[in-house]
Fold:
Amino acid sequence: MKKLLFLLLFIPLISFSQSYKDVMSINSVDMFVKVAIENGYEFDSVDEDDWVTYGYNIDRDSIEGNKSGKWIYYNQKDHRFELVFSRTSSFFGINLTTDFLEEISPYDIIVKDIKEKCKYYKIINYKGTAYVTYSCSESSYKGKIGFVIKEGWGIIRHFPEE
Structure:
């Protein structure tokens, strides 16, 4: 019962997040920015490698660097994108690293849809990390979508066609 009550109180705070449909629609920097803004993200930076970065409720810190529990990135050179979600969080001082967080995490919701609606492709090793990748017929991007959990972060990454 406590879990249900907690869920009902917490859902309004996370309901404005990316969806499978949003991820499938990203095929350009313009669509990426549209998805970012419509989901409540704010612009953070463009780095020297042309990565456009948006964060959700960014805690700006010029000394230690900006922090957020959700980041999205788009590379303008090769049209790759990445969504990164913290798998640990707190709500009114309560640590949400239990099964409860996994049930409502945007990462888990999107990955569940990918596994249901797309076809498994293969494992792709990217910079020493193995990603499970899928081919999605509904996608507007060219390539595959992959995901992994690494160091407390859920990562969904686009792998463009080679």
Summary: The radius of gyration is 16 Å. Residues 2-14 form the longest helix (13 residues). The helical segments are 2-14, 20-25, 29-38, 99-104, 106-117.
